[in-house]
Each structure stands twice: as structure tokens, then as C-alpha cells.
Amino acid sequence: MDPVLHISRDELYQPGVDTTLAHAKAVLQHAQPVPEEHVSTLRRVLLSHLFFTPLAGLLGGFTTWLILEPSLNDMSDNEGPFLLVFPLTAVLIVLFIFVAEAISSRRLRGIGARWASGLGFTLLFSVLSFIPMGMLLALIAVLPSPPSMTEVYSITAWPARFFIGFIIIRSLAWAIFGGALGLGMNVLRSTRAQRRASVMGGIVGGELGGLLFDPINRFLIPATDQGDVMRLVGLCTVGLCVGIFVALSEQLGREGWLRVRTGPLRGKAFILYHNPTIIGASPTAHIYLFKDPKVMPEHVALHRSGNGYELVQSSSDAPVTVNKTLVQRRRLVSGDQITIGDTILDFEERAKKRSVQLNQPAKENGAQA
What does 163-204 look like in DSSP terms, one character per residue? Predict the structure, then answer.
């Protein structure tokens, strides 16, 4: 192809040339450099998934305890209120995590469908988990050295062998519940890495909660016959661990992300899960840039292309610059600075591993010989 662009005299004086030049001038005026705003360390921490997601999970477990504990009586034969503990814990932990995510990104309406599916499946799986949990808890009847009828309500009098076996069975049962919780919250609209990490977080949280439950009663507060403090620690541990592992999955599994440098969301990092990722002023956009009148509802899209990302302008009325250069389509590299309206975003990408096969040329030469 001829690398030189040829323009005829007739093309130069076409009526559309003046319109195009006027539009280009307006775009250049519209895309003046925007001063970057300082992002404090405290703000960056508060907007980090590693902070607000575990906190939300912990608050979900704590809220469950506040709601149900007044109606729970360990000395009563009425087990009805106890049946609500695990389903309500699962639903509130997931709800608090989703709400925290929506508030941090200002997308209360944008992730409504994910809320509905996540809460629905979480409730379903937590109820279904009663079946394997019940089968495990039935093994308590065959544990060695069971306590006598007078020792049943005095945990300090339980024989050591029975006590250890009881802890193991409880922790395994709670781990099943935690795994069901983690699977339910991310069974849809998530990546495989997200599902794996949330299930692992639920299992670890349930395991730790079950392990801590009875030792707290036996060694720290042996005088009480109620499990209120143990339930508080156990439910909060489940929520905290689920939140930690969900946040870690997002940090460890991310390939590319955008960090906002200006505007109300400055300091917030958005992981590029979707393909394409829509950036705009619409609440349904994946990255919602509100309070910026220069941003169109769907301003630009970031497409996953091969092992990288490509920025594509939505229309000529939606100017975007990369490193202060107006672009319509641009292959992004880590460190690129994107300006959309009055909002500056830094594109960052995980370093890619490239395998180098030093012996490959020798093999090819040998084959040719």
C-alpha cells in the first residue's frame, strides 16, 4: 500500500472540510488538560476492597446476631429460631458485601440484578446445606466418652475425647454452610476465580467459627449456659473471612484495572471484569462517572483483545484522550493516562509472563539441515 496520503484539489474544497475542521477545533478545546487531585492514603484505604469488603461481611454476621439473639435460648427445646441462624447469616453477609460494593462505586441501580441472583442463590444453598450438616451433626451420638445426663449442660465437665470430637464435627458442619454461602453469592455473573475464592472464604470462615465456638465457652466463659458470646464470635468470623477472601480474589485475579485520579471517585480502583467494560455517565455503566457534565452516558468501551485491552470511543461527540492525545481507538499499555471529560483515570495492567524458548531456533535449523 502507498504510505503517502493523496488529496485532490476537488477533495480539499469539499463542503464537509470546514465542518470537520470546526468540529476538530471544538474537540481540542473540550479536551483541555485537567489538573489531577491529590488522593490521601486514608481515602485510598477506605475505597479499597481489602477494607470495606471484610468490614461489610463482619457487619453482616454481627447484624444477624443482633436480630436473632434475643429469641435464642440454649436451654429451651424450641429449635425454630435456631433454624433461622444460618440462612439469615448467609443472606445478610452477602447483602452487606453487595451494598458496600455498590456504595463505593455509586452503582446502586447498576448491580441490582446481581443482588437479586446472589441473594436468591445464597438463601437456596444455605437451606440445602442443612442436609449434609444434619448428617454430620448426627455423628455426635457415636462419639466416644459422651457426657452423662447431668453433665450435658456443663461443657467444662465434658470428657476431653468427646469435647475434641464435638469441636471437629461442629467446625466441619459450619464449613459446609460457609461453602454454600460463598457459592451462592457468586454462582452467577462472576468469573471462575471469583467463585473459587468466595467458596474458599466461606469454608475457612465457617471452619474458624466452628472451631472457636466451644473453646470460648469452655475456657473463657465457663460459668454461662448460653451461647450468645460464642455465636457472636462465630458469626462475625464467618462474615469477616468471606469478605477477606472475596477481596483477595479480586486483587489476585485481576488482569487490568483503572484507578480514578479526579472527581468524586478519586482513589477508587475498578477491576476490568467485563468485556467490554463500559465507562460513562449512565448508572448502568460498569464504571459510573457521575457529576461530570462532559461525560456521555456511554462514553468509551474497553475491550479485552487477546492478552491486552483496547479503548474504543463510542462516538465523535464523546472525546477521549490517552496521554493527552485525542484518540478514537487505542491499544492500552500499563501506565496510560485516560482523560474522559473532567475525569482522569490511570490504566494499570498485571505484568505478563513471556516464555522464552532458547532451544527453538536450534531445533528449526536442525530440521532444515
Answer: HHHHHHHHHHHHHHHHHHHHHHHHSSSS-HHHHHHHHHHHHH
Confidence of residue 7 (pLDDT cuts 50, 70, 90): low
* Contact in structure between 51 and 269 (CB atoms under 8 Å): no
Q: For 40-48, what is the mean pLDDT?
A: 84
**If you average pLDDT over each of 20-29, 193-202, 203-212, 334-343, which comes out highest?**
334-343
∠ CA 146-149-155, nearest 5°, is 65
Angle at 242 between CA 96 and CA 203, to 5 degrees: 140
d(CA 54, CA 47): 12
Question: How much is the pTM?
Answer: 0.74
- CA angle at residue 91 from 89 to 97, to 5 degrees? 100
Report residue 367 CA to chain centroid gap: 50
State yes or no: pLDDT of 30 exceeds 60.
Answer: no
The beta strands (E) that lie in 276-342 are given as 277-280, 287-288, 300-305, 308-313, 320-322, 325-326, 329-332, 337-340
Q: Which amino acid is at 328?
A: Q
Contact of 179 with 196, CB cutoff 8 Å: no
Which residue bears the cell 468540529? Answer: 23
Residue 223 to residue 131: CA distance in whole angstroms: 33
d(CA 245, CA 347): 25
The answer to whether the beta carbons of residues 41 and 208 sit under 8 Å apart is: no
Q: What is the DSSP-derived secondary structure letter of residue 269?
A: E
Amino acid identity at 307:
N
For residue 6, the 8-state DSSP code is P
Give the separation between CA 165 and CA 173, rounded to whole angstroms: 12
CB count, 10 Å around CB of 274? 14
Strands 277-280 and 256-260: unpaired
Please check whether residue 51 is in contact with residue 221, taking contact to mean a CB–CB distance below 8 angstroms.
no
Cα–Cα distance for residue pair 197/228, rounded to 1 Å:
30
Q: Please state, in angstroms and rounded to a whole number, the distance separating the CA atoms of residues 176 and 201.
A: 11
| Percent helix, percent strand, percent coil in the chain, to nearest 5 | 55, 10, 35
